[in-house]
Amino acid sequence: MRIVPISAVIMLMASTAWASPAVTDTSIDHTLATDAEVSSGDTQAIPPLPLEIKTQGDITYVTGGVGDEELRMLLNKGGDFNMHLLLNAKGGDYLSNIAVHVTDAKGTVVLDVSDAGPYLYAKLAPGKYSLEAIRHESETKKISFTVGKGTVSRNIVFGS
Q1: How far apart are CA 76 and CA 99, in angstroms?
Q2: Any residues with CB less than 8 A from the CB of 105 and at least 6 apart, and which?
Q3: Any domain includes 97
Q4: Are 136 and 114 in contact (CB under 8 A)?
Q5: Residues 6+ positions from 148 with CB-CB distance below 8 Å
Q6: Three-state DSSP state, 110
Q7: Residue-wise pLDDT tens for the chain (160 aa)?
Q8: Contact 142, 130 (CB under 8 A)
Q9: What distance in Å separates the CA atoms of residue 94 and residue 157, rounded to the nearest whole number?
Q10: What CATH code is carried by the domain that includes residue 113?
Q11: Out of 13, 88, 108, 159, which residue is the most buried by the measure of CB atoms under 10 Å away?
């Protein structure tokens, strides 16, 4: 039996196995599965939850639009609502959890949403309205608009 000094073994290993170029196996899918996919054995995408259309008094509304699927669902429902509101930051980032209060011409609050965004769609009766949007109780934006036969679309930008 021949004894080889450890330094020679280390040099041999460094010059062969560890010094060889890296091999990339392109046959492996490196995407991550969700917990639900792993537990069910299903590797297909989980379908998004349907948007919840809510009613407050006589007003029907929906808010959301976070993520591509939810935004697609919301845009598909857009024709059912005559007031479209987009809430975003000065840099263009979408915002959510915005408090929105809509009052009619008599000063009556007709819609009060505490967690709107980034989109808020509502079906309002024809008339004049004022809208107040509050972000983090520190920044308030106010707009006025009139609902007629068509759709009223407004964009409120915070941080400007």
Answers
A1: 24
A2: 127, 128, 129
A3: yes
A4: no
A5: 126
A6: strand
A7: 555 555 444 444 444 443 434 434 343 333 333 444 444 555 566 666 778 899 999 999 999 998 889 999 999 999 999 999 999 999 999 999 999 999 999 999 999 999 999 999 999 999 999 999 999 888 999 999 999 999 999 999 999 7
A8: yes
A9: 9
A10: 2.60.40.10
A11: 88
Is pTM beyond 0.90? Reply is no
User: For strand 54-56 and strand 59-64, is the pairing parallel, antiparallel, or unpaired?
Assistant: antiparallel
The DSSP bridge partners found for residue 109 are 103
> Range of 98's domain?
54-158
Q: Is 91 helix (H, G, I), strand (E, B) or coil?
A: coil
DSSP characters over 39-95: HHT--SPPPPPPP--EEETTEEEEEE--SHHHHHHHHHHGGG-SEEEEEEETTS-B-
Bridge-based pairing of strands 98-104 and 119-123 is unpaired
98 inside domain: yes
Q: Is residue 72 part of a domain?
A: yes
Q: Which two tokens stand for residue 84?
A: 């479209």
Domain total in the chain: 1
Report the SS3 class of residue 25. Answer: coil
